[in-house]
Design goal:
Blueprint lengths: L3 E6 L5 H14 L5 E5 L1 H7 L5 E4 L13 H4 L4 E5 L3 E3 L4 H7 L4 E2 L3 E3 L10 H8 L4 E3 L5 E5 L4 H12 L1 H5 L6 H12 L10 E3 L9 E3 L4 E5 L6 E2 L3 E3 L6 H14 L7 H29 L3
Parallel strand pairs: 1-2, 1-4, 2-3, 10-14
Antiparallel strand pairs: 4-9, 5-14, 6-9, 7-8, 11-12, 12-13
């Protein structure tokens, strides 16, 4: 079993993003082995960009695959990254910081409020008998080591099996599930915020990004200071045009056909700029009118 590697998941709707992740890692971490867990149809299209192709487990859907990462990973020490991530730095310094931990992700703690997926934190804390809940929303990554991580994932699978009892009739989210599992087991998130960023972390007009050269620098909105993250997570389609441009540049650099990238980019732009705002307005209206 290889000692360390990067694992991702991909579907027929996001396999081009997984290829982009692999290419960005070839730029910045050329010696790190890469693995993808996916269906046979995705393997035919994206498998050649990875060192290991793992068949996805039958019967699982959507985010539930993420509570089976321990079974998918062919590595002793694994960094999992969502497919919509680009990497801009050497991973080794970060991995060395996390070495020896069963499971971790960048985050913090919260005791109240509602997660982006609808999880009432105070309610869950009262049910599991804890004072504060791990918060890793939007992380897009996780580091874990075998065999110590098995307990974490087994707990996450148990939480998944009883999710409605714990969380109520809300949307299933692996981030909330893993946060609950980490909290139950007393596993703390890591404060290494220099590891990750979102595109919207940058003050408008300050982003300097070139995935083909491993460059990402900007002035952070929160601190007003220069920031150079290791990776950027393009979650929830929030920066479709800049992301698509980075993918196009990576594909061209490595001589990979770019067919389908702009179509994907337009779909992502529509989802963030049209479909999501309409959904938010509709949700607000239902609440104002008292509709179920």
């Amino acid at each position: 079993m290889p000692e360390f590697g990067v694992l991702t998941l991909a579907t027929n709707s996001d396999y081009l993003k997984a290829i982009g992740l692999a290419l960005s890692l070839r730029v910045t971490n050329p010696d790190v082995p890469l693995a993808i867990a996916c269906s046979a149809s995705v393997a035919e299209k994206a498998g050649r960009f990875f060192d290991h192709v793992i068949p996805e487990q039958a019967g699982l859907r959507g985010f539930v695959h993420k509570v089976y990462l321990d079974r998918y990973s062919p590595f002793e020490r694994t960094l999992f990254l969502d497919s919509d991530v680009l990497v801009f730095k050497d991973l080794q310094p970060f991995v060395e910081r996390w070495k020896g931990r069963a499971y971790c992700a960048c985050g913090d703690y919260l005791s109240e409020g509602v997660s982006p997926f609808g999880l009432d934190r105070a309610m869950v804390l009262s049910k599991i008998g804890k004072d504060r809940l791990v918060f890793i929303d939007g992380a897009g990554h996780a580091y874990f080591e075998k065999p110590a991580c098995v307990e974490v994932f087994e707990t996450a699978r148990e939480v998944t099996g009883h999710y409605r009892e714990l969380a109520g009739a809300i949307r299933y989210a692996d981030e909330d599930v893993m946060a609950i599992a980490m909290t139950m087991l007393g596993l703390s998130p890591t404060p290494d915020q220099d590891f990750l960023a979102r595109y919207l972390s940058a003050r408008p007009g300050t982003m300097r990004m070139d995935a083909t050269a491993g460059v990402c620098e900007f002035i952070a909105v929160t601190t007003g200071r220069p920031f150079a993250p290791c990776m950027v997570h393009f979650a929830a389609n929030e920066a479709a045009v800049p992301y698509t441009r980075q993918l196009l540049a990576l594909f061209k650099k490595f001589g990979v056909p770019t067919e389908g990238l702009w179509t994907q980019g337009v779909q992502d732009w529509w989802a963030w700029n049209v479909r999501l705002p309409v959904h938010r307005v509709a949700s607000w209206a239902r609440g104002q009118l008292g509709w179920a």
